[in-house]
Design the sequence.
């Protein structure tokens, strides 16, 4: 554990953390989300307006300064007058990124906060998946980046489904899924990285409250192919969810319980798809049937 204001961070013998603790920190924030307490300290309070909108949905100030993971945002003035300040971002004792682009460093911080949250949450199981709501039930699309889940999630939203997430399915032990409505991310066509698209640009709406899972569809995008799917057994569907669960190795019982509950009464499908619009219409019709 650590405090935002200067107490050495675990591991206490970390030379890097001892050096960081000695810097002139100006402002700090301890916040809680999904049972995880995280902290951010900065030498330049003006960077906070860029960071706060990127924190996970549902965060709120913690009731204590003692945190489980601490971020340090160090800043120094440029050597030449008129040049922007240079910022260095640390996750715990680990150097993450450096530069003068506050927006880029803020996105790096936000991505790592999501990773720490998914890894440390004692209340929820985080599964890499896109999720939408449809007529009182959730459709979960497990898969890591590159399988086309963001594109399919967006197509479902355009057809009227409510948006839960295109990053994680946040599950409880009963198999219910909770909203995690960060902006959708699509691969850039003009270079590396991703493009963040607000839900409003898709004409969609955010989901309200948890929903039982009505469908788990493991679909991989294959260009120039049609839609081909087959049914999964509850056991195999649960294994697909476990394979995408962040805490599968450190909380195996909780992950297995959530995956089994999610798969127990849902429509379970696996296969590949071509166009996202065709697949989205098929999934909604299948859930309605």
Sequence:
């Amino acid at each position: 554990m650590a405090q935002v204001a200067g107490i050495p961070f675990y591991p206490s013998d970390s030379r890097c953390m001892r050096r960081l603790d000695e810097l002139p920190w100006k402002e700090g924030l301890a916040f809680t989300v999904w049972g995880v307490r995280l902290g951010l300290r900065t030498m330049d309070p003006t960077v906070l307006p860029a960071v706060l909108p990127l924190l996970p949905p549902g965060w709120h100030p913690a009731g204590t300064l003692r945190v489980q993971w601490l971020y340090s945002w160090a800043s120094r003035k440029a050597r030449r007058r008129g040049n922007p300040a240079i910022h260095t971002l640390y996750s715990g004792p680990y150097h993450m990124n450096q530069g003068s682009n506050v927006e880029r460093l803020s996105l790096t911080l936000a991505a790592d906060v999501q990773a720490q949250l998914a890894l440390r949450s004692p209340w929820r199981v985080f599964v890499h998946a896109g999720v939408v709501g449809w007529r009182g039930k959730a459709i979960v699309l497990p898969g890591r980046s590159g399988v086309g889940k963001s594109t399919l999630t967006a197509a479902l939203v355009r057809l009227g489904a409510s948006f839960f997430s295109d990053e994680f399915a946040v599950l409880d032990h009963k198999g219910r899924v909770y909203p995690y409505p960060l902006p959708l991310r699509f691969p850039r066509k003009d270079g590396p990285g991703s493009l963040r698209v607000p839900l409003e640009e898709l004409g969609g709406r955010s989901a309200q409250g948890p929903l039982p899972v009505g469908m788990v569809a493991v679909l991989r995008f294959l260009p120039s192919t049609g839609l081909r799917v087959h049914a999964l057994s509850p056991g195999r569907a649960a294994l697909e969810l476990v394979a995408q669960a962040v805490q599968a190795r450190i909380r195996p019982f909780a992950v297995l319980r959530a995956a089994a509950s999610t798969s127990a009464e849902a429509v379970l499908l696996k296969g590949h798809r071509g166009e996202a619009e065709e697949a989205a219409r098929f999934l909604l019709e299948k859930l309605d049937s």
About this structure: Helices lie at 15-21, 48-51, 102-120, 149-158, 234-243, 252-263, 276-288.
